[in-house]
């Protein structure tokens, strides 16, 4: 079992940056592919980015490519999301998720992930 706790959200002006962290408990973190998803009010949860267990494969939604960077530190059981050049449309609750399945590449669908954090709010003002 994996427990996930996000942190680092907040209020930032457009063009600013934030770094989200996701602390994972359990010994299986280093085996899991990990992902970040987000959900804005009135919208469905959407894939943001993902990273495989080793960090050697990543995937990004087109809307965040070139602005967001996902990374992980398996020694610290922590997942990160560096968000630069933030836009008002990035405003959402951000969730980290763990996939305990055996996949070479990170999944891009929420159904591929088994465990979820409670989320952290990111608000970007214009």
Radius of gyration: 13 Å
What's the helical proportion of residues?
A: under 10%
- The residue-averaged pLDDT reads 96
The percentage of residues in β strands lies in over 45%
| Low-pLDDT sequence parts | none
Q: State the helix count.
A: 0
Order of helices and strands: EEEEEEEEEEE
Overall, the morphology is globular
Counted beta strands: 11
What is the distance, rounded to the nearest whole angstrom, between the alpha carbons of the first and last residues?
40 Å
Largest sheet: 7 strands, mixed
Helix/strand-derived category reads: mainly beta
SSE blueprint:
Blueprint: E1 3-7, E2 10-13, E3 18-25, E4 33-39, E5 46-51, E6 58-60, E7 68-73, E8 78-83, E9 92-99, E10 115-116, E11 120-125
Parallel strand pairs: 2-11
Antiparallel strand pairs: 1-3, 3-8, 4-5, 4-9, 5-6, 7-8, 9-10, 9-11
Salient structural properties:
single chain; 126 residues; mainly beta; 11 strands
Short summary:
The chain has 126 residues and is an all-beta fold. It is built from no helices and eleven strands. It has strands spanning 3-7, 10-13, 18-25, 33-39, 46-51, 58-60, 68-73, 78-83, 92-99, 115-116, 120-125.
